[in-house]
Amino acid sequence: MPPIASYSYRVLFNFSPYRSGDEYWKSEGKDWSKRTNSFEKPNSDLTKATEAIIAGASTPDAKLRKIYAAVMALENSDYTREHEAREDKANGLGKLNDADDVLKHKRGDSTQLAELFVSMARAAGFPADLMLVPDRSKNLFIAAWLTFSQFDDAIAIVNVDGKDQFFDPGSRYCPYGQLAWEHTFLKGLRQKGDEAIFADTPGSNYLANKTDRVANLNMDSNGGISGTIDLTFMGAPALHWRQDALRGDEESVKHSLRTHLEDMIPKSLEIKDVALSNLDEYEQPLKVTYTVAGTMGTRAGKRLLMPADLFLANDRATFPHEKRKLAVYFLYPQSTQDALRLNFPTGFSIEATPSDSKFNLPKEAVYDMTVTAAPTNFITRRVMAFNDIFVLATDYTPLRNFYSQFEANDQQSVVLKLSPQTTATAKSAPAN
What we know:
Layout: H1 21-40, H2 44-53, H3 60-72, E1 75-76, H4 85-90, H5 99-105, E2 107-108, H6 110-123, E3 128-133, E4 153-160, E5 163-167, E6 187-192, E7 195-200, E8 210-219, E9 225-234, H7 236-246, H8 250-262, E10 269-277, E11 286-294, E12 298-300, E13 303-307, E14 328-329, E15 334-343, E16 348-352, E17 357-361, E18 365-374, E19 377-386, E20 390-391, H9 396-410, E21 413-418, H10 420-425
């Protein structure tokens, strides 16, 4: 459902000397922008540091990438801890009075790092602004409610060759040129010189937030399964797991990722090991490799019923209710691509596979699943893409029908037939 803070009945009181909302936002926004510009104004030390960082960069994009990487390398205290004044004093550091102090401290909170990025972009010759935004996992901005408390975070806007580009240096590990999903599809308050104006943040599409799930499994003559499973996260899913690791450590995120896969695959398939790649490389996809062993499928006489897509073995209906009063709220557009290869030994053959299936929700979603059979294996390929975040209650029925169609299709099986000799010599049968 949508954020309850923005979709529930309530009364909001404004105690203000201003006679209208426009007057409030114009006056208070101007004061905020002036204070922010004062903090962001690059001094000589910050300008020199910026020039050293962008040295050798020949294009505007290359310069910005170097600045962004330098800011992202600093400690974000919102993900670590606050530092007491006595610690800074012991290290010869004073209060954070401007963006240059953030750079010298080599740390700051999310807003301060966004301000530093704007300041360094300005020092490099780019027109740049700060923008205040809510966290839409909690609430949406309401202009009629006259308070800055609606804003949770700050993002940066840099004009490159006449075009605004949006950045999120305050969201640790957010890739260059992208926004955390909580800051997309939003209205907020943006600097414009010493003034402030309402502005919208861009969204992302399903290609930017992608999860690939690939299983390469082998079955022995007794029905035992072994192999590897690779999950690759890009965009918002990758950012989620990377920030999860910041709040714990690599071992804690491995445990969470183990649980994440266990919730998907058959309970009879045990995860033996979990390995991570690119956990700190925010510009690269996050890859997780699992080693698994156990059994899979259901024995039915001389047949084995294997899940066509093992990643959906424990799925339940997303929309079980026929009617709905509230809109459906998806966190972000996304796509999931599955691939399963199961190799089986002599003595097994494929008796039946699901038919190729395609479903779509016009302009919003598409689903495609195919199962290809061969003498010694079968390969399942599945794609599900959803390119929206908000579906009104009046459009619930077609959404539910679409989900019901493909979720029923996801639960189909591949039927393997056992030869009489294999049946007689099998030591154990796969079971759920």
